[in-house]
Amino acid sequence: MKSARVLIADDQADVVEALRLLLKGEGFEIETAHSPAGILAALESHDFDVVLMDLNYTRDTTSGQEGLDLLARIQALEATVPVVVMTAWGSVELAVEAMRRGARDFVQKPWDNARLTATVRTQSELSRALKRSQRLEAENRLLRSGDRPALIAEAPAMQPVLQLIARVGPSDANVLITGEPGTGKEVVARSLYAVSGRASRPMVTVNAGGLAEGIFESELFGHVKGAFTDAKMDRVGRFELADGGTLFLDEIANVPLNLQAKLLRVLETGEMERVGSSKTKRVDARVISATNANLAEEVANGRFRQDLLFRLNTIEIHLPPLRERREDIPLLAAHFLRAHAQRYRKHLEGFDPSAMQALLDNPWQGNVRELNHVVERAILMASEALIRLADLALRPIAAGTGRLEDMSLEEVEAFLIKKALARYNGNVSHAAAALGLSRSALYRRLERFGL
Ligand SMILES: Nc1ncnc2c1ncn2[C@@H]1O[C@H](COP(=O)(O)OP(=O)(O)OP(=O)(O)O)[C@@H](O)[C@H]1O
Ligand SMILES: [Mg+2]
Prior knowledge:
By secondary structure, the protein is an alpha/beta fold. The protein has helices at 13-25, 36-45, 65-77, 92-100, 113-146, 159-168, 185-194, 213-221, 238-241, 257-269, 295-300, 306-312, 329-343, 353-361, 367-381, 389-392, 403-406, 409-423, 428-435, 439-449; strands at residues 5-9, 29-33, 50-54, 83-88, 105-109, 175-179, 203-207, 222-223, 235-236, 246-250, 271-273, 280-282, 286-291, 315-319, 350-351, 386-387. Strand 3, helix 3 and strand 4 (83-88) form a beta-alpha-beta unit. Residues 398-402 have low confidence and may be disordered.
């Protein structure tokens, strides 16, 4: 192991020399400085494990003010390097003031060799341990960002989403993510977490949709042995697991009303009890929640507490449905193609033009998730390097019962135009007449819809 580096600073050359010999003999690597400017220059050019410095530099002052100012500048430059200050015998007040301003320890002159050496050694070991843990933390963060989910969002409709993630991700603010099923709410939750200051702590997920009402409370808050028949031993709840980290409450609209009150309490006060216990515990969790329900409507219908909604939606991120960000379809499709082709070990290069056109035109009621599934299925079906329209096995846009209600106005228009063209064998004049449009108006729409 490399020996620890110590910077020794004093304006008296004989003091510096004596300390240098002492600490060098103890195995430290030494550098010296004789003025405040010299100390700052040394810190700028090298990393040190410890700085051992005198507080007085101008011979005629003994106030130590110069040294105290210097301490502040060192910390601005190198916040983590431990500083041990030297003060004249009897000036304990000055030493205390220096400690208050961030010095880690002090020695009084004339010093005791053994004690000074022990002090420097302790500080250098602490400093190395700190550096090691900071490096590990940074490495972990990097490793984790490796499994950070890809968030494809180049369409204009997604720009507000990206901006919000960048702005509120690093804060501790509670965020509510809304959007239709399959729009990527979980991906956004993971992205928020990945850019947060809590990324080195776990993100604990609770899916309120998948839990039976009876076990929900103990899942969230834990329980103690004997709290109910099946409670054979103590159990830590998700809130406690997320202490210091992030809690992702998915499908929040499904939390039963009686538990909403308990949820509100822990969000307001940070206090909770395990089921069956009266011992109050404090937890500090950043809460990200998601729902595809309209919570304002749920509040109006008495199914969701308004005060809880206000706690959860400090910031709300709404994900637009895929049909409002069709620009992203080619990118998403290519992303899923790459991912699944690798998984199924098939060589596929892309989509032929008619297949891509169909992907662009599809209504995508199931949003990004449906696109993902369609691409996965097509990969299994494909027999050539390009995926063809037939491989996609998309349901034709048919006027099945009630389907029109689910379409946007544009989709309905495109659907009716396609039908009219099919009925008149592609004759634009006849189709236009049947639709009550002029020929040029129909051509404009054909262009717009890419038909
Ligand atoms: N913008 C995106 N970029 C890349 N992949 C995405 C994106 N949005 C969604 N996905 C993928 O689509 C699928 C569905 O996304 P996700 O599970 O986040 O949706 P959701 O909104 O939570 O859906 P639900 O409401 O059904 O829970 C996942 O496989 C996810 O990785
Ligand atoms: Mg989800």
